[in-house]
Amino acid sequence: MHAIRVATAALLGAGALALSAPVAVATGDSDITPFGFSVTPSTVAAGGKVRLQVERDHGGCKGAVTVTSGVFDTVTIRRGHSSATATVDRDARPGAEYRVTFTCDGVSGSTALTIAGGRTGPTPEPLVPRGVHAGEGGSIAGFDLKQIGLGAALIAGSLGTAYHFARRRTGEDGA
């Protein structure tokens, strides 16, 4: 009888964990790729410069990266390099959002680049990023607090139910 209670509690716990596991979802902002990519800054004035960066640390992209957009000329990030700079067209529409597509080893992903309102002088070179770019294009992008809360509630509910059944049955066994 004790083995059935333990098995039930284990199955409830495993089910709750399976239901609360993060799910990778492709959103309208970026596509899921085996490599991370980014455009810095994500909002720039017409005529400004942006830094195009690809993450090669985890082996998701081994070849050259082609970066295309309707707002700047096609840029190639050479094999072994992780970034390049592009100059935004001076005639880019202020307030418009353009897609920037990164293609490497036959896999493509895209993100948005917004053109700032008004024309000013060229945007200064973006700072060289240091350290890890957590959450950029990975499987954890787009966390939803509602989903996290629902997952936590499922886990808490299943543990509470398992505890309730385990405590209730010990009294019936005469222990």
Please describe the topology of this protein.
Elements: H1 2-20, E1 37-40, E2 43-44, E3 49-54, E4 65-69, E5 72-77, E6 83-87, E7 97-104, E8 107-115, H2 145-172
Parallel strand pairs: 2-8
Antiparallel strand pairs: 1-3, 3-6, 4-5, 4-7, 7-8
Helix pairs in contact: 1-2
Organism: Streptomyces actuosus
Keywords: Signal
Signal peptide: 1-26
Description:
The strands form two sheets. The protein has a five-stranded mixed β-sheet, with no helix packed on it. A three-stranded antiparallel β-sheet has the order 1-3-6, with no helix packed on it. The protein is built from two helices and eight strands. Helix content is 27%, strand content 26%. The chain folds into two domains: 1-22 and 143-175; 26-139, Sandwich (Immunoglobulin-like). Residues 19-30 have low confidence and may be disordered. The protein has 175 residues and is of the alpha+beta class. Strand 4 (65-69) and strand 5 (72-77) form a beta hairpin.
Defining traits:
175 residues, alpha+beta, Immunoglobulin-like, 2 domains, three-stranded antiparallel β-sheet, 2 helices, 8 strands, 27% helix, elongated
What is shown here, in short?
The protein has 175 residues and is of the alpha+beta class.
Low-confidence stretches: 19-30
Total helices: the number is 2
Largest sheet: 5 strands, mixed
- Tell me the fraction of residues in β-strands, as a range: 25-35%
Strand arrangement across the biggest beta sheet: 2-8-7-4-5
Structural class: alpha+beta
CATH architecture of the largest domain: Sandwich
Organism: Streptomyces actuosus
Protein name: Lipoprotein
Keywords: Signal
Signal peptide: 1-26
